[in-house]
């Protein structure tokens, strides 16, 4: 499994989502996912939405995925003015 494949699975599974995924050992990854569908949801519910896009790969091909989940309004791209 690689970071780009995980990014694609998340973006395909959550319409309108943008994902940035890092990880270089093939089983441990970190992701920032920005999606309007997260609006009004607690972090656990947001994470479940992301995990659902990965299915049974979680705990198998993907041993660990550290998530940061934001709505577009919560996300400020690097370099954006305050």
The gist of it:
With 82 residues, the chain is of the alpha+beta class.
Structural account:
The protein has 82 residues and is α+β, with helices and mostly antiparallel strands. It has one domain (3-70): GMP Synthetase, Chain A, domain 3 (2-Layer Sandwich). It is built from 2 helices and 3 strands. Strands 1-2-3 form a 3-stranded mixed β-sheet. Helix 1 packs across helix 2. The longest helix is centred in the middle third of the chain and has 12 residues, at 43-54. It is globular. 22% of the residues are buried. This is BolA/IbaG family iron-sulfur metabolism protein. It comes from Luteimonas vadosa. Belongs to the BolA/IbaG family. InterPro entries: BolA, BolA-like_sf, BolA/IbaG_stress_morph_reg.
Output the keywords.
single chain; 82 residues; alpha+beta; GMP Synthetase, Chain A, domain 3; 3-stranded mixed β-sheet; BolA/IbaG_stress_morph_reg; BolA
Mass-distribution shape: globular
Per CATH, which architecture? Answer: 2-Layer Sandwich
- The total of helices stands at 2
Top-tier CATH class = Alpha Beta
User: Any idea what the radius of gyration is?
Assistant: 12 Å
How would a textbook summarize the main sheet? 3 strands, mixed
What name goes with the CATH superfamily?
Answer: BolA-like
Order of helices and strands: HEEHE
Domain tally? 1
Q: Termini distance?
A: 36 Å
Whole-number average pLDDT? 91
How are strands sequenced across the largest beta sheet? 1-2-3
Write the layout of secondary structure elements.
Blueprint: H1 3-13, E1 18-22, E2 28-34, H2 43-54, E3 64-70
Parallel strand pairs: 2-3
Antiparallel strand pairs: 1-2
Helix pairs in contact: 1-2
């Amino acid at each position: 499994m690689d970071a780009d494949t995980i990014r694609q699975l998340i973006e395909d599974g959550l319409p309108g989502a943008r994902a940035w995924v890092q990880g270089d050992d093939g089983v441990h990854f970190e992701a920032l996912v920005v999606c309007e569908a997260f609006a009004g949801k607690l972090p656990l519910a947001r994470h479940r939405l992301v995990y659902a896009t990965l299915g049974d790969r979680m705990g198998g091909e993907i041993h660990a995925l550290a998530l940061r989940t934001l709505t577009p309004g919560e996300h400020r791209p690097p370099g954006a003015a305050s």
